[in-house]
Write a structure and sequence with these properties.
It is a single chain. The protein has about 200 residues and is mostly helical. The protein has a single domain, classed as MFS general substrate transporter like domains (Growth Hormone, Chain: A, Up-down Bundle). It is about 80% helix and about 0% strand. It has nine helices and no strands.
Length: about 200
Amino acid sequence: MLRTPQYYMILLTFVFGAGAGLMSIGLMKLFPMVALTARGMDLASASAVAGTAMAVFFSLANGLGRIVWGAICEKLGVRASMTTMMAAQGIMVLAFPLMAGSKILLYAGAAMIGFNFGRNFALLPMITAETFGTRSVGQNYGWVFLAYGIGGIAGPIMGGKLGDLGNFPFAFSICGILCLLAAVIISRVRPPVRTEMTSA
């Protein structure tokens, strides 16, 4: 598996998706506070609204997304589901800076981003099994899951630096573009032919 281009395509998809998601999460309370106060809301109220967006809407939708994306996958197939989800996530993250200054749109944006982010843990094991077979899926997914560590380190660090600079729209633009790139990459993944396959 490690000698196939398909492994690195899936790995890169997960790095981009996880990194963008974790980077966004780190900014999704701070930026709405800035956007809401710029619209005239007092800081305490803005903090409460932003906290509700993440603690309630994002979190509930994140859990729901893990279930629903699995069901969607049964209808569309895993690759089409991941491509659709990544593209939708990219669009939502790019749009988020425009939504963050409105309480209702903020709640909707947080819910949609959380819903899509929940798919990482539902669909990545499935596409690993579909691409490389079920024989060593536990070991193979362990190698794929390394991407979460890479994205989990790089995304928040980059987001923190951009957040410190106050450049929130640029940070969300990076996240959105990464998700769109991930959609393109995962759409091109096909199971390797037998001569390419090696065990992990």
